[in-house]
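Give me the fold.
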Amino acid sequence: MTTTERPLRSDAERNRLKLLSCALAAFTELGIEASVDEIAGRAGVGVGTLYRRFPTKQALLDALADGIIDHIVELIEKAQTEPTGHGFEHYFTAFGSVIARYGPALPPLLGGEAPSGRLTREVEPRVRRLMADAQEAGRLRREVTYSDFVVSLWSMAGAVSSTRDVAPDAWKRHAGILLAGLRPPADGARLPGAALTRAQLDQATALRRVARCRRRRGGDVTSSGSRFAVMSEVMTADEVRERVAAFLAEHPPTTTDPIAFNRARFDAGFAWISFPEGKGGLAAPRELQVVADDLFAAAGAPSHNRERNGIGLGMAAPTILAHGTPEQHERFLRPLWCGEEIWCQLFSEPGAGSDLAALGTRAVLDGDTWVIDGQKVWTSMAHQARWAILVARTDPDAPKHRGLTYFICDMTDPGVEVRPLRQMTGEAEFNEVFLTSVKLPDSLRLGGVGDGWRVAQTTLNNERVAIGGQAMPREAGMIGLLADLWREREADRTAGMHDSVLRAWVDAEVGRLTAERVRQQLAVGTPGPEGSGVKLTFATLNQRISGLALELLGEDALRYPDWTLRRPEMTDFYGRGAAFAYLRAKGNSIEGGTSEILRTVISERVLGLPPEHRVDKDVSWRESVR
């Protein structure tokens, strides 16, 4: 083999490169929320095989980022061979080809801590040298900073992302426009203000905020900060406090109508602070949400029915944001957050609970209208809901996962019938819902026809985090109920019970801190299979701790407070005493994914163990055994 020949790659390396290529294609086409299932399917391997090579989704993203950074370094090295002063323009234009190739997947792919470190060490110093050479040669305005360079790149990224499908070569024009703004004027006069004028940015479809990027608070875009962070775009806790203070001064909670207050709060971006601007957010880091919420709570801001609308806030909203159209964003997000419209979830069926993909509710297209027929069960709060998120089968001849479509269902349609399901707690928190010739316009379809399973994964992953991963102070929830009983009933304490209570307290605290870690991980992406572990822990601990509470109560536990049939206005796991909490906790291992299914998800998608054998994977739903 000569020195110019490529070395032979091992089978393992070729397989690894194939997985990376398929993952990159999925992320580029579907965005960073592309699931591991989709990547494995494109590569023709099992999910377990993918996880054995890349233990977490972040490890896969980092591996892809390493390849992109290697490419960027090669571009810089090539630019350094250009005549003095010309290297910066060569690199800037070449980077446009990188943006065009990877599209909207590029910013989040380079958004992790590991890629950030490499870019800071290997890319930034070289780019600064190229800029200095260009400025010395009079080919780059001297007032242009590294921050301006980053602004220019992501201006081009925003423009290219919006035009790449219809104008694949548009990046060349955008690069030329932006370079023109970075060069000195022909007459040598110094232009005031920023390196890029508003008109030039408008020509490049303006700046697109890179909302998913990891950004450190404050500082310029230098070695101490993320290479994506543009100084004017970084939002800090102090800035959030200033904005909230200004908002409260303009909308005093005590004198403003509650509905008007919440609508204004949504419009100001304080609903979901990490959502894009105009959709209830500020495109700010997710961790700043608690800063805003605490200030609003301290000021006595009115409620937006959070307790009644857990499904809407925790499951429907993230799914609508990720897969909905701009018109759907405009119609649903604001009244949802404000609590004006309650949501429920129409997923499970009598014959499709744990195996959700086996569901049989049919949706048939009649002109521009879908006609829905079927039955759903275990639907929380359906008796209160205005809207529902619904998965129905649109192609019975396709394999069960591929023939599903996701809809938003109008619960006021005359074909929707809601019947209570009484639980052993005495309440009818759940319902069964019958759908008879329910008519939904195609504008209420969420995602593509046949793409329902992928859209549903967004809902399910958020559901598991919403159920088991809520932010809670120490000794909140079920462990708080047990701790209070332990402190109140000194006469019933024993050494053995003390050991059991202490172990439960420690396990609950570990679970709470683990849930906090998962919430922090959401700052750089959408919920993944790790949320299954949080929900599984939540269910297991609730059942164990509620049992200890009954044991501590002794015969007093037999005095159940009230068996009257009630249709509650919100889901309550703990509020009616230890006996109620014990009975209600039995449902925790069923709702939001059974504990058995969650263990399968963890084993295959987190631990990378071999998947269970599925005989119906490529069999049409119509022919499958149900």
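Residues 1-9, 162-166, 187-233 have pLDDT under 50 and may be disordered.
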